[in-house]
Write a structure and sequence with these properties.
The chain is built from seven helices and eight strands; from the N terminus they run βαβαβαβββαββααα. The protein has a single domain, classed as 2-Layer Sandwich (Peptide Methionine Sulfoxide Reductase, Chain A). The longest helix has 17 residues. It is α+β, with helices and mostly antiparallel strands. It catalyses: [thioredoxin]-disulfide + L-methionine + H2O = L-methionine (S)-S-oxide + [thioredoxin]-dithiol; L-methionyl-[protein] + [thioredoxin]-disulfide + H2O = L-methionyl-(S)-S-oxide-[protein] + [thioredoxin]-dithiol. Belongs to the MsrA Met sulfoxide reductase family. It is an enzyme of class 1 (oxidoreductase).
Length: 175
Amino acid sequence: MDKKLDTAIFAGGCFWCMVQPFDTLPGIESVVAGYTGGHVAFPAYEEVKSGKTGHTEAVKITFDPSLMSYEQLLGYYWQVTDPTDAMGQFQDRGDNYRPVIFYNSPAQKAAAEKSKAELAASGRFDQPIVTKIEKAGPFYVAEDYHQEFYKKNPERYAQEEAGGREQFIKEHWGK
């Protein structure tokens, strides 16, 4: 029997730092770094980095919902992003690093909105939750050297993580 897979698209700063937190979870088939939300077809990294294409660095997660639900993925998403910072994430600044949940269906939209409302009501943050929830558009896979960056370049990846994400997670989630 073939398993039925689904996808989730999340943006939360540099895509290098968004792959690893999801890559090791049960039920995850793949996590691909790429670009979405812009107005240029098939953008290159340098174009996206310039801010002129309107794209956001994001990850496309292919998962088995019988092993990992979309709601569970949302729970992990909130733990690895700063939902109070609309202008980037940690040391990554600019619109191409903004936090966004890109939904693929009405069910994903409803789940994301519910999850965001629950986080806002939790009192965990003393600032408003500003993460956007937007309809998914075309997702363009980033260049090969961006894929699985944390495995290929562990020292550089560690420097990126030291830029604030790791400390943020400890402060807000105790991990």
